[in-house]
Amino acid sequence: MRRLRGAAVALGTAALAAGTSVSAWAADAVNNPDIVGQPVDGAMGLQPAHSPLKFQAIAFHDHLLLPIITVISLFVLALLMICVVRFNKRANPVPAKWSHNTPIEILWTTVPVLILMVIAVFSFKLLFAYHAMPKPDLTVKATGYQWYWGYEYPEQKIPEFTSNVLTKEDAAARNEPYLLAADKAMVVPVHKTVHVLVTGADVIHDFGLPAFGIKIDAVPGRMNDAWFNADKTGIYYGQCDQLCGVNHAFMPIEIKVVSQADFDAWVAQQHAPAPAATPAAAPAPAAKPAAGKSASAAAPQHLALNTQASVAAR
Ligand SMILES: [Cu+2]
């Protein structure tokens, strides 16, 4: 028994060590100092938080769920080991014949119910926080397409522009991670509450941004919403989180969080007339051809598929 107890203590220490390495998560990107929110090789735990909801989600996970899961796992393991050692054929040649024990049955029903109730109370608190959005400073509409995102700023009167994945070469040239970097990012000001309206144009996509604790389905014909308030300027990456077709892995979400002055300058730039076109060029809206052009240069294979999809959708 003493040996068993020693093994259980050793396992507990190992579990705690694993838990503390969660906080030792390598925070920022190694290659590009502007990148704040992205996954890191070999990291454990959740991506560091940069928006209020994610801080709450991490607290819920690290301070409530993980300890409960650890204790339950160790308890079950200890019970198993006791059974193996004490009640094997050699140690216990004449087994007991009883099959029911009312106090134990009451205990193993009520204790799990109580544990689940405690988890439910705190998870509802977190769930309500997702719906209790502070007064938004800015609204952005994100539309999921097969297989790219469209961003529109109704208050700034910026029409929808498309955001396509960068090719491996273009991502490397920009010092950004392939499959997370997009040709045109969603730009938002720092320390401002951003209301994101999320919908899908063809199939169900999902707008997921780990550093902000956002994961919301983009459903055709339905407007979902989420909010975040970034606490630091920089680049944050997310991805479509809903399997949406063959190029699902190629529709990253890139959000650039900038100062208010930089955001105002960016908005003005979106409204600026397009560079003087040659008289022969066909007239077209300012934002879309720019996005389309860079998309065709950046990711011809995806654009080709996107075009096929939009033709098929008609
Ligand atoms: Cu997808």
State the distance separating the first and last CA atoms: 71 Å
The percent of residues in helical segments reads: 40-55%
Structural class: alpha/beta
Figure out the total of helices: 7
Give the names of the bound compounds. copper (II) ion
| Mean pLDDT across residues | 83
Elements, N to C (H/E): HEHHEEEHEEEEEEEHHH
Which spans of ≥5 residues are poorly predicted at pLDDT below 50?
1-30, 280-314
What gyration radius follows from the Cα positions, in whole Å? 26 Å
> Biggest β-sheet: count, sense, barrel?
6 strands, mixed
Please tally the β strands and state the result. 11
Strand-residue fraction?
A: 15-25%
Write down the oligomeric state: single chain
Q: Judging from the principal axes of the Cα atoms, what is the shape?
A: elongated
How would you describe this protein?
- The chain is α/β, with parallel strands linked by helices and 314 residues long.
- The protein has helices at 2-23, 52-86, 102-131, 168-173, 260-271, 287-298, 300-313; strands spanning 35-37, 138-145, 148-153, 158-163, 186-189, 194-200, 205-209, 214-218, 224-228, 234-240, 252-258.
- Strands 1, 5, 7, 8, 10 and 11 form a 6-stranded mixed beta sheet that branches. A 5-stranded mixed beta sheet has the order 4-3-2-6-9.
- A hairpin with a 4-residue loop joins strand 3 and strand 4.
- Helix 1 packs antiparallel against helix 2 and helix 2 runs antiparallel to helix 3 (102-131).
- It is elongated.
- It starts with a helix and ends with a helix.
- The site of copper (II) ion has 7 residues, from loops.
